[in-house]
Amino acid sequence: MPFFRTIKVRDGIIGTWHLTEEPYEFLNEITLSIADRERFDKIKSDKRRVEFLAARCLLNKVMSDEPQVSYSDLGKPFLENHSLNISISHSSDFVGVFLSEKNIGIDIERTDRMIDKVADRFLHPDEKVHIKQLNNQQLAKIVYWSAKEAIFKSSESQGIQFNNQIYIVPFNPELTTNFFAQLRMDNKTFRYRLSFQNFENNVLVYCVQE
């Protein structure tokens, strides 16, 4: 099975899996808990089934034990009886799992995904001005989108407005892979360190709350 790789980062470990299997191939490799089997049986799409199972396989690959994944009332995953936090993401090609003791988020997107039609919904006006000054605007838009998705996943809130509550500190993704962002919510400002990687026509962005 094409387990892709693990990436050790400053605040934890990331595992990525290249999606090429059918659901039955995963089921021959892992044993689902009762709760996961119930979740799996409710999934109708083969693609979503593969994504679900690949995330469980990844978790087994990067951890020595086999913790149970549960979900908060807002849908945020967490590990039962475990000190590590978990974040999960998938694109059409890959699944990614990020594990850390800190509050984290991860997102994977295809670099060729066309998101111009939704740019007004996730880009702050100042961010749009900055991106227009860059040579590779497509890369910048994908990284900004993925960064905001990762930050959203790290929060315990719904209804966050990406275009005015999450602000990316200006940077050029052609020159650096490390950057910073802020989430403004309930009269508070939460600060994040972020980093991204390009691989196999995908961009992976992960965030760590400071």
In terms of topology, how is this protein built?
Blueprint (H helix, E strand, L loop, with lengths): L2 E7 L2 E7 L4 H5 L6 H9 L3 H17 L6 E3 L5 E3 L5 E6 L3 E7 L3 E7 L8 H4 L2 H8 L4 H18 L7 H4 E3 L9 E8 L2 E12 L2 E8 L1
Antiparallel strand pairs: 1-2, 2-6, 3-4, 5-6, 7-11, 8-9, 9-10, 10-11
Summarize the structure in words:
It is a single chain. The chain is α+β, with helices and mostly antiparallel strands and 210 residues long. The protein folds into two domains: 3-101, 4'-phosphopantetheinyl transferase domain (Ribosomal Protein L22, Chain A); 108-209, Ribosomal Protein L22, Chain A (Alpha-Beta Complex), CATH 3.90.470. It is 31% helix and 34% strand. The chain has seven helices and eleven strands. The chain has helices at residues 23-27, 34-42, 46-62, 119-122, 125-132, 137-154, 162-165; strands at 3-9, 12-18, 69-71, 77-79, 85-90, 94-100, 104-110, 166-168, 178-185, 188-199, 202-209. It has a five-stranded antiparallel sheet. The longest helix is centred in the C-terminal third of the chain and has 18 residues, at 137-154. The protein is globular and about 50 Å long. The protein starts with a strand and ends with a strand.
Order of helices and strands: EEHHHEEEEEHHHHEEEE
What's the architecture of the largest domain in CATH terms?
Alpha-Beta Complex
The helicity comes to: 25-40%
Rounded to an integer in angstroms, the radius of gyration calculated over CA atoms is: 17 Å
Largest sheet: 5 strands, antiparallel
Which fold does the CATH topology of the largest domain refer to? Ribosomal Protein L22, Chain A
Provide the CATH top-level class of the largest domain.
Alpha Beta
Number of domains: 2
Question: What distance lies between the first and last C-alpha atoms, to the nearest angstrom?
Answer: 36 Å
Q: What is the number of helical segments per DSSP (H or I, 4+ residues)?
A: 7
Q: What characteristic shape results from the CA principal axes? A: globular
- Poorly predicted segments: none
